[in-house]
Amino acid sequence: MKNGTVSQRLFAGAVHYLDSPGQYYSSLTVDLLKTRIQQGDAALGPRNTTVIWNTTQDIIKHDGVRGLWRGTTATLMRNVPGVALYMTGLTHLRSMMAKSPHFAAQEVHKSPDGVKTVLPQLSSQGNLLAGATARVAVGFLLNPFSVVKARFESELYSYKSLTGSLASMVRMGPSELMRGFVASSLRDAPYAGLFVVVYEAVKRETTLLAPNVHATTIHGLSAASAGAIATLATHPFDVIKTKMQVRSEERYRGFLSTTLRIWQQRGIPGFFDGTSLRVSRKILSSVIGWVVFEGVLLFIHNTN
Fold it and tell me: How much is the pTM?
């Protein structure tokens, strides 16, 4: 199989979470800070670095330095299978769509400096649809773990264990397990679709303009560009999702009511709380994730 077997894609998709301990542990802290900043029910005071620093100090004051890594197990349960399933599902879906004349790329550009990617090549519309479909499907399967992850990162809940938190949510019914799924889908579908479109476009153009550049550099540049653009475009839905998943008040139980509440309290700036944290984390994780994913598949391709 040109782009690897299913098991090889699963391995390539999951391994990047273990390839850089520094990146992994720093991303946990960034996610926790982002959740704490977004969860509020009142107007924030100082902005940007000041509110980030104040939030960090508050966590250390109450929970110690270890508090910055609260919810590590919940994050592992959500992100490791999530990344593996998404990368595998995306590649498999793109492989199927590449056989259709409606979605296959009309022109396949090859670098004179050897193979730089073994991923299926689709049109922009195909990449948009494949990315959105794969991301929403994985989000649906793992939404209960997303809720648990957000609540562990928030100080509004006193969960002691992963199993205890899941059991508590199960007792409250299916609606609690799927809390925030609409907002997550409105964030994830355009994010993943935009990411794949921009990633493939930058990779294609960079390969044409600089054919002698190493594949790792091309993949890293493409992932950083795609991560930044897709994150900025979809961040408002991330704020809405966080509030729906961690706030227990009735006004935060619906998508429209949550959106209205944010607008009334903060206006447009309220939809961009934690932007710098999420953008920085997404750029870093995208670069490492896609460089490793494509690198592993290229290695498998070359050894075969």
Answer: 0.82
